[in-house]
Amino acid sequence: MIEKGKMSAFQMAIILYATVLATAILIVPSLTSRIAGRDLWLSPIWASLIGFFTVYVAIQLHKLYPGETIIQYCQHLLGSFPGKVIGFLYLISFVYFCGIILREYAEFIVGNFLTNTPMVVVIGSLIFVCAVAVRGGVEVIGRSAQTFSGLFIFPLLLMILMLLPDWKINNMFPVLEHGIMPSIMGAATPQAWFSEVFLMTFFLPFVTDRVKVRKYGYVTVFVILLTLVITNVTALFVFGKMTPMLVYPVMNAASYVNIADFLEHLEAVVMAVWVAGAFVKINAFYYALVLGTAQWLNLSDYRPLVLPYGILITLFSFWSLPNLQVVAHLLETIIPFNLPLFFTVIPSLLLFISLIRNKWRK
User: Fold this and answer.
1) Domain encompassing residue 312
2) Percentage of the chain exceeding pLDDT 70
3) pTM of this structure
4) By the 8 A CB rule, do 138 and 69 touch?
5) What confidence tens digit (pLDDT) does each residue in 108-148 have?
6) Is 193 part of any domain?
């Protein structure tokens, strides 16, 4: 086996939680509210159905092909050449997604905090740290995610609690003013983020307590759902109809915090959440990329691929994504289709083919 490391089901759950929410908590409220309006808090509920279904598909495929990732069982199901083609498309998509995540991170940090720092420094420093973690293997990724989980979760909860005095509950009403369809259509954006839980297929072969995988998988999706609903509700209660006009509603909400003129302007809390989450998220996609490539090429080790891919991802984040407007356009128009295609639709078709083949053999 290329990877000899191990992780627990809990560590895998932490990785999936941070992977989905790292970018979702900042961007999704604004994108969702543009379609769903004041019913944006309902959209994550409909979107979570994709998350639960994706976890089910990933676990079923893992049961049929234990110890393998989608790059490997593609070839068993479709044949060598078609399987290689699908695997190659996955690898290209991982480079694409890594570049977008990296650019999102850099645009936020440079645009809101390190305004005089060259973007190449911000991007280069993060990709270097991620490369070190990925080269360390699945154990390093799992332990680092577990370590950073507190930095990701507790500051976010603290900020939401401090915003309670600024909540204007009337911003929610009337509920379903235009029917249920706006909230369902608004789910198109968050469902793309929920589909990212399929990355678990690259960690399942290395989980020690596999009997807990199903439970942790579904619990992770539920906690993600709960977090997104609370985040969307917070944005709605604080900003109301202004939410669609804000790029980062959670960031803007942090500036509203004022406790006795002593504790105020918690923008640094948002930055801590963003940095910790982006680190875990890029690690997950980066690891899937290098491990998948090694499996696709039948290599004995993925570590020599870490540095070349790090350079490629960095270059892609500059060449193909020149500014924040392009990134925002991709997140609103292309990503809601690309992510579910690779993480839900194709795996579902593979599971269907596998079940048909097994039934035919019987």
Assistant:
1) 9-348
2) 97
3) 0.94
4) no
5) 899 888 889 999 999 999 999 999 999 999 999 999 999 98
6) yes
For residue 190, the SS3 value is helix
Pick the closest to residue 70 from 53, 52, 84 (CA basis).
84
CATH number of residue 71's parent domain: 1.20.1740.10
Model confidence pLDDT, tens digit, residues 337-360: 999 999 999 999 999 999 888 777
Give CA–CA dist 103/116, Å, rounded.
Answer: 17
Instruction: Evaluate whether residue 268 is within a structural domain.
Output: yes
Q: 96 Cβ partners below 8 Å, 6+ apart?
A: 316, 320, 338
Which DSSP helix (H) or strand (E) runs through 258?
strand 258-259
In a domain, 360, yes or no: no
Secondary structure of residue 115 in the 3-state scheme:
coil
Residue 1 lies in a domain: no
Distance in angstroms (rounded) separating the CA atoms of residues 317 and 122: 12
Name the domain count of the chain.
1
Question: Please, which pLDDT band fits residue 1 given cuts at 50, 70 and 90?
Answer: low
Residue 182 φ/ψ, nearest 5 degrees = -55, -40
